[in-house]
Design a protein that fits this description.
With 450 residues, the chain is of the alpha+beta class. It has helices spanning 5-12, 161-183, 191-206, 314-317, 336-339, 344-359, 394-410, 418-425; strands at residues 75-84, 121-122, 125-126, 130-132, 135-139, 143-148, 215-216, 218-229, 263-274, 278-283, 288-292, 297-299, 302-303, 306-307, 319-324, 330-334, 374-376, 438-447. The protein has a single domain (5-447), classed as PPM-type phosphatase domain (Phosphatase 2c, domain 1), CATH 3.60.40. Its EC number is 3.1.3.16.
């Protein structure tokens, strides 16, 4: 099976509506490595080759990854999440989420509220991230991503796109955090290797005897840094380049610090994309888009995707862009529920407008609840440690406003939308927005203190 988005939309109306998967709201915590990152190996087409052993570190009481796996980097993200699901996500099946003791009900067809907030596990470890319909998202100090599972799998007896999207995310984030902790100060990201490893581990985790099928797109941005000579700090371009270029609008960050060797450090994004989810960088200081990833398609409405029966693999198809950014830039990881309903200039305007409204005092206390925006801090402080004049919740507010703008178009049968425009260009009758899961992770680049 290799499904297009149009086939998915037609079949979704007949699919079983499941229970919400447990939404995991706590921020990631401290970890320490017990083993190095294993060498990636390509699976044999004829034999079942186990994926590389996972060097799972000890986890805290919440079982979540922690940015302290990284040597303290010069820059970090403050993040927020907003989610809208066109239907409640299907609960994860056993062995990822076992039915309550004594229950013989089918977790894929029976809505049991007792399972709504039960945690999901793989190989005995908490599955990282959040599920939103068939989407999955992850946010931390140094990595954000949005995966979009192909919902047509929900009509198949062993299909579960939401599980595939979440497992790819889980293994992807885990590979990044493990490698960063292993290498320490010498750490340099290898983005394709991380996603390839996640893909292989997801194949193994969903293979026999579990045998769960699905496909998903993947889009993520990892924050790192680059060194430039101090004399070149302000010699970069002005940010008026082509937004589709990986180095457009980069320049050097104003005020970058020089180290003992006279080199300045500036934030650098490693953007990895496969499919039609998108990473975008917005520069509020100039109200412009300075970068967006390029969507990948087999044909209209059928994106590249990882999973069952798909020919696509990260090693062959993933695209990595190195994107120099600046402090204060906003990085967005979005499922196609956003970009199918909002044009790029509308996204830029909504982000800049939301920041201005927040700084004018609007939205305080909002942007903290799942489904309407989840504000997260990148410095590890809890809510009771943050003062009212802090920016805690700002990115949650930005994400929420962007999600609501996309949702307003998605549910309007008379709206004009990018999806409608693209469909008409292909000679297909289409009108209104595209009702889909809408997932937004918004992150602002900050300088780490100390």
């Amino acid at each position: 099976m290799f499904e297009s988005e149009t086939e998915r939309k037609e079949k979704d109306s007949e699919s079983t509506i499941g229970a919400e998967d447990g939404l995991l709201a706590a921020q990631q915590r401290r970890i320490h490595l017990t083993a190095p990152l294993s060498q990636d190996k390509a699976p044999s087409p004829t034999t079942a080759t186990p994926s590389p052993p996972v060097a799972y570190p000890p986890l805290d009481e919440d079982g979540r990854l922690d940015p302290s796996a990284f040597q303290k980097l010069p820059f970090r993200f403050d993040t927020g999440i907003a989610l809208f699901a066109k239907r409640a996500p299907r609960p994860f099946p056993p062995p990822y989420l076992s039915p309550p003791s004594g229950s013989f009900s089918d977790p894929l067809s029976t809505h049991d509220r007792s399972r709504d907030r039960r945690r999901a596990y793989v190989d005995g470890h908490l599955i990282q991230g959040l599920t939103n319909g068939d989407d999955a998202v992850f946010a931390s100090d140094y990595f954000i991503c949005a995966n979009d599972g192909v919902g047509a799998w929900s009509t198949r007896p062993r299909g579960h796109a939401g599980l595939w999207a979440r497992l790819i995310l889980h293994f992807w984030a885990t590979a990044i955090f493990e490698d960063a902790a292993r290498q320490g100060a010498s750490y340099r990201p290898t983005p394709v290797a991380y996603l390839q490893r996640a893909y292989e581990q997801t194949i193994e985790a969903t293979g026999p005897p579990n045998d769960w099928q699905g496909t998903t797109t993947a889009a993520g941005a990892q924050l790192h840094y680059r060194q430039v000579q101090a004399k070149d700090r302000n010699s970069g371009d002005s940010g008026s380049g082509n937004p589709g270029s990986a180095r457009a609008g980069a320049g050097a960050s104003p005020g970058a610090d020089a180290d003992a060797d006279g080199a300045a450090v500036e934030p650098l994004l490693y953007v990895t994309n496969l499919g039609d989810s998108q990473v975008m960088v917005v520069r509020p200081s100039t109200r412009e888009m300075v970068y967006k990833s390029t969507e990948q398609w087999h044909w209209f409405d059928c994106p590249r995707q990882l999973g069952t029966n798909s020919p696509d693999t990260p090693a062959d198809c993933a695209v990595v862009d190195e994107v120099p950014i600046r402090e204060g830039d906003v990085v967005l990881a979005m499922s196609d529920g956003v970009i199918d309903n909002l044009w790029g200039h509308e996204i830029v305007e909504k982000v800049c407008e939301s920041l201005e409204r927040w700084r004018a005092g609007e939205g305080r206390g909002r942007g903290r609840g799942l489904g309407t925006g989840l504000g997260r801090r990148g410095d590890g402080r809890d809510d009771d440690e943050v003062h009212d004049d802090d920016d805690h919740g700002m990115m949650g507010f930005v994400a929420e406003e962007l999600m609501e703008a996309a949702k307003a178009v998605a549910v309007d049968p008379f709206a004009e939308s990018p999806f409608m425009e693209h469909a008409i260009e292909e000679g297909l009758a289409s009108g209104g927005g595209k009702l889909d899961d809408i997932s937004v992770v918004a992150a602002i680049c900050r300088r780490n203190q100390g």
